[in-house]
Amino acid sequence: xxxxxxxxxxxxxxxxxxxxxxxxxxxxxxxxxxxxxxxxxxxxxxxxxxxxxxxxxxxxxxxxxxxxxxxxxxxxxxxxxxxxxxxxxxxxxxxxxxxxxxxxxxxxxxxxxxxxxxxxxxxxxxxxxxxxxxxxxxxxxxxxxxxxxxxxxxxxxxxxxxxxxxxxxxxxxxxxxxxxxxxxxxxxxxxxxxxxxxxxxxxxxxxxxxxxxxxxxxxxxxxxxxxxxxxxxxxxxxxxxxxxxxxxxxxxxxxxxxxxxxxxxxxxxxxxxxxxxxxxxxxxxxxxxxxxxxxxxxxxxxxxxxxxxxxxxxxxxxxxxxxxxxxxxxxxxxxxxxxxxxxxxxxxxxxxxxxxxxxxxxxxxxxxxxxxxxxxxxxxxxxxxxxxxxxxxxxxxxxxxxxxxxxxxxxxxxxx
Length: 416
Ligand code: NAD
Fold this sequence. Notes:
This protein is α/β, with parallel strands linked by helices. Helices cover about 45% and strands about 15% of the residues. The chain is built from 14 helices and 12 strands. The mean pLDDT is about 95. It binds nicotinamide-adenine-dinucleotide (NAD).
């Protein structure tokens, strides 16, 4: 089975290149990354032992602007995963017409096993190791799986101390009090919400009547769960790494968020009506809208045939493999692809970057209005191309995104 995300990312380029008749030279170039840095991060642990972690920063393409992409702390992180995530960021920024390129970073670590002090040391040493290839005009990290505003603040501080001046623009997703943007935390969830609302309108169905299942209950899964719950949708199941909870009458999302935000696992939540289910069962349970919002490679050729939803809204990056995608297309399941669906995060990161440069900060109302405008513009464009060419929303999104990148290479030329 094709479970290497970078192989999936390259296969997606081949599919779209064939569909749009892309210049083979450009196709070959797009399947390469511009730059990758692998670093060793030695940390003196609280117990006096030395542990050495491996970290990465990858820039896939900066042809349309500085690199932009999250930083992930997880035991599954490896170079190919980071390369794939950086590649997907290139398409996402291009699809939204943001003047930014694609990048990503990660450290292979289980952050729950570290104390706060150890986590801070890890973040600061990683920042120091990659300091020459990040910066406001070079590559700007942001939060991703298991990283948050506090970690961004440590990166900003370490970078600033090394440069001898405050450089808030080195990261986005910072706390608001040091130059972060309001609405960044909820941005990916808000973006997902705007896109699914628009999709329901196209299909002439009422969003509030849809039954929803969500895999992953962190920043992305938690926010979209909250927004849909408050909109009146029934959320039949949610899961985290510990497993899932299912209730056919709908879960009380506010109480579950309260529980997990205190650091608890979903599997330990007690309610006599709720059934404990595995992540595999969750994905194949009957619902209208399935939202994978955890990690890549969750919907594969092994389970795609068993899915019983009508729409998949990709909150996570790369949750569906290319073979699974084909199966879903044949089954008539509409997949709203990651590079469109979850682009709200990078969109508000871009707003944070713009506000920082202008030293003028917007209110939440303006952030959400601008986010909605940009998300809906991209959605309409993707929907129209998909309808016109009778292709999946993913292929349509890729055609638009890749064309813009190819055009940028054409205009800039190959140096020297
Ligand atoms: P997070 O760390 O806040 O939450 C991740 C959630 O997934 C947690 O609930 C965790 O328990 C769960 N999880 C982890 N491994 C799992 C597994 N094997 N099975 C089931 N659940 C599992 O991370 P996040 O920021 O919400 O990111 C989730 C996904 O969304 C990632 O693919 C990320 O790249 C993508 N994404 C995030 C953002 C953002 O702004 N944070 C933006 C765009 C895309």
